[in-house]
Amino acid sequence: MNLPPALPIVPFTRPVRGTLTLPGSKSITNRALILAALADGPVTLHGALFSRDTRIMVAALRTLGFAVETDEAALTLRITGRGGEIPAREAVLDVGNAGTAARFLTAFVCLRPDGVYHFDGDAAMRRRPIGALLDALATQGATATARQFPFTLRTAGLRGGPVRLDASESSQLLSALLMVAPHARTPLAVSLVGGTVSRPFVAMTEQMVRQFAAGPAEYAIEGDATAASYFAALVSFRGGELRLGGLNAGPDALQGDVEFIRLLARRGNIRFEGDRVAFGPSSTGIAADFNDFSDTFLTLAALAPLLDGPTRLTGIAHTRRQETDRVAGMARELRKLGQHVIEAEDSLEIHPRPLVAGVEIETYHDHRFAMSFGILGCHDRHGDGRPWLTILDPACCAKTFPEFFALLDRLRAGSA
């Protein structure tokens, strides 16, 4: 879908009905690509996500000498693992603004005992945390020319033993080490300096490492639970029922972001069973700690103007150093819409006010702003289906969900 620079959102005028297939999880796809490259022999990934971030990872693995076959129509990726060997001794790796690619590849290339790797990313990536991971890898003999992008990394293999890591700014730093740890010359024992954020992503990594240790030739990617949050929010105010194909919200789910749907269900904003979400009896504001599933805090923040009473989101300080300062950006855009917002370092409190029409939402090159406010725009503010909210740079959704707005269009047509 070719998107214009500014996209007016057409509201839904009737309850939402239908079935949609969620895109594959970006978090799982990029972890699976690394773990498959570490495997002994070929691994086929099914239900894989094809988006900007996963294409960056595929391109980097090919640059490093790995054979990666792609079939976008079938949603499959086939990687021939090299058992911990990094084929290319020297490479230039551009990670764009893909946090998983940036952190995972930095630890991954350190398996080579004599490598020279030139890393860079876009302007936003140059502000994102990587230094603590480089410090940990330095204890294994790696040397970097800087503690942020761009840098050149000279590697010495992973000798193993104890490694201390400060993962307080991103759980991806810890996940990066956990995936390569089994391939160190002796066991790599990671201990944390302080805590880490987004613990469920660490649990995801640990579970996937165990799964790949069994040597699977085939691996299925779960549907994106963060993407599911947008459609659960849509149903919560527009009504109706949706089946979210590919969603795993059971006890064996890898993705902590399914907690968002469980949260809405507990508060009565939706009803939820299996992979179906339906309109709930409550529209009250919500107070919740989002530390463990912070990618979805923007979904609730954008929904907050439609709820009865204030919404308070905490545990989000670390999101100030993601694709953008998500806390400040969200406060800024909500105020443009007429909302009363109280911003603190680690929290937002949103008091609903009448929504201002005719607002253009700045997305800061951040896919989650575009999708969260895209859902808010589906609210029929005027009562006659006229657009009242415009999303700037909607194409930034290509990072994780290229078909987001096309899928909204199809749902709107099926619900008419």
Describe the structure.
This protein is of the alpha/beta class. It folds into two domains: 6-24 and 223-415, Alpha-beta prism (UDP-n-acetylglucosamine1-carboxyvinyl-transferase, Chain), CATH 3.65.10.10; 26-217, UDP-n-acetylglucosamine1-carboxyvinyl-transferase, Chain (Alpha-beta prism), CATH 3.65.10. It has twelve helices and 21 strands. The chain has helices at 26-37, 52-63, 99-108, 131-138, 171-180, 199-213, 225-238, 259-266, 297-303, 326-336, 367-376, 404-415; strands at residues 6-8, 16-21, 40-46, 68-71, 76-82, 90-94, 116-120, 143-144, 151-154, 161-165, 188-192, 218-220, 240-245, 270-273, 276-279, 287-289, 311-314, 340-344, 347-351, 359-361, 389-392. The chain has a four-stranded mixed sheet. Strands 4-5-3-12 form a four-stranded mixed sheet, with helices on one face. The longest helix has 15 residues, at 199-213. It is globular, with a radius of gyration of 21 Å. 50% of the residues are buried.
